[in-house]
Amino acid sequence: MPLIPFRRAKDIIINDCLILRTQGRFVELEFYLKKYKKLLLFGASKYYRTYYLFYNGLIRFNLGCYRDAVKLLQDFLLRIDNPSAFPTDEAYYYLIRCYLILGNEAEANVCLNLLTERLNSPLFILMSLYYMKLYKVRHQVNLNLFFDALGDFDDEPDLAVTALMRILSDFVRDDTYSADVISQTRKSFAQYAAYNTNYYFSLVRLSFMFHHGFYDAILEKTDYQTVSNSFELLNIYCAALYKKGLTDECIQCLKKAVICNEASFFHINLAKCYIVKKDYSNALKVLANIKDKSAMDYRDFLIGICQQKLGSFNEAVAAYKRIQQHSPYYDKALLNLAAIYYDDFDYRSCNNILMKITQPRVRDHEVYKFLIGKTNGSANTKNISILIFFMSGILAVLTALIIIVFIFLRLIG
């Protein structure tokens, strides 16, 4: 049998990646890219290297490595000279998602404007608007022009796009949507879901239902097997179990998930479940396996909580101080560190840490109010005590000098 030429083999790989991505099978996509990376990047073809950046960016996003995903997707967009020949709209959509998660609203809006101007993919525009709505980020797009340009929804050949347009058009337009609108949207999702298997439709459907508290509906329509190949769908499913108080079932699903992939949010969520169960030792074992640099601060925050609960205060302090090196204003960690100093009667350090806390939500916390009330007085009392101690020392020295001078004068007199 003759060997397949390199170019033909690369085309087959790219087509397989396209199928896996369209079906949301990101676990398999990650494995597939690793397996054929050398072949795909062999030679100097810009086309295949550009596609590799795109798919790797999608994988990093699904693994929760959002900063890495931004770099890869930006590099992808800079390399393409013919946007229509590549999945440009999808790249903008994932960049918008990354920027929303990272809190960069301005860049999210820049990408949304570029995506809307192209008007090539209503699906990704609608989903981007939907996530901006969920993150409460005000978009800067003229939606009336957008929806007018789309024309009749029924003419759209993609069933998923048709469904999402009908379901989300009013949802993303209204700034003050009511419970009735949400309920109707949920019913519409159920109606279309029966004969729609598009991955992105399923993602928005489950995301919508989760963010509006329809956990029972999610658990009725899905199970671990149906969502196990998609990082995002699996995360939503596990989160629904957690929200329903099914912590043991959630732990079992997450234990399977961490075996299959390295996504840091699965490890973090598994650790949080163990913390809820007060199984701090197992939580620490899970947290020790997190290698993603972008998740280190939250990992150390959870390590600090576990060590605090186990009475290992030196280890807890070390974890919170590691956070301060990279994120000096991580207020929840600062509050926990201040509490440790207070319990150790180090009121001055406790007060100094509390002064660094700026977030109103943390400053309104009962623990903060208690500590600030106690340490302000204690710190002042300690300062006065130190002043009195030094003054007493100075007075004793002066008294001794007077006595010495008096004796000396007597001796020479």
Provide a descriptive summary of the structure in words:
- There is one protein chain.
- The protein is mainly α.
- The protein has a domain at 328-413.
- The chain has 23 helices and no strands.
- The chain has helices at residues 6-22, 26-41, 46-62, 66-79, 88-102, 105-118, 122-134, 143-150, 159-173, 179-193, 199-211, 215-221, 224-227, 231-243, 247-260, 264-276, 280-287, 296-309, 313-326, 331-343, 347-354, 360-363, 366-412.
- α16 (264-276) runs antiparallel to α17 and α17 (280-287) packs antiparallel against α18 (296-309).
- The longest helix has 47 residues, at 366-412.
- The protein is elongated, with a radius of gyration of 29 Å.
Mind sketching the topology for me?
Elements: H1 6-22, H2 26-41, H3 46-62, H4 66-79, H5 88-102, H6 105-118, H7 122-134, H8 143-150, H9 159-173, H10 179-193, H11 199-211, H12 215-221, H13 224-227, H14 231-243, H15 247-260, H16 264-276, H17 280-287, H18 296-309, H19 313-326, H20 331-343, H21 347-354, H22 360-363, H23 366-412
Helix pairs in contact: 1-2, 2-3, 3-4, 4-5, 5-6, 5-7, 6-7, 7-9, 9-10, 11-14, 12-14, 14-15, 15-16, 16-17, 16-18, 17-18, 18-19, 18-20, 19-20, 20-21, 20-23, 21-23
Keywords:
mainly alpha, 413 residues, 23 helices, single chain
Supply the helix-strand structural class.
Answer: mainly alpha
Mean pLDDT: 80
Low-confidence segments, given as residue ranges, are none
End-to-end distance: 124 Å
Number of helices: 23
Overall radius of gyration: 29 Å
Portion of residues in beta strands equals under 5%
Q: What string, H for helix and E for strand, traces the elements in order?
A: HHHHHHHHHHHHHHHHHHHHHHH
Number of strands: 0
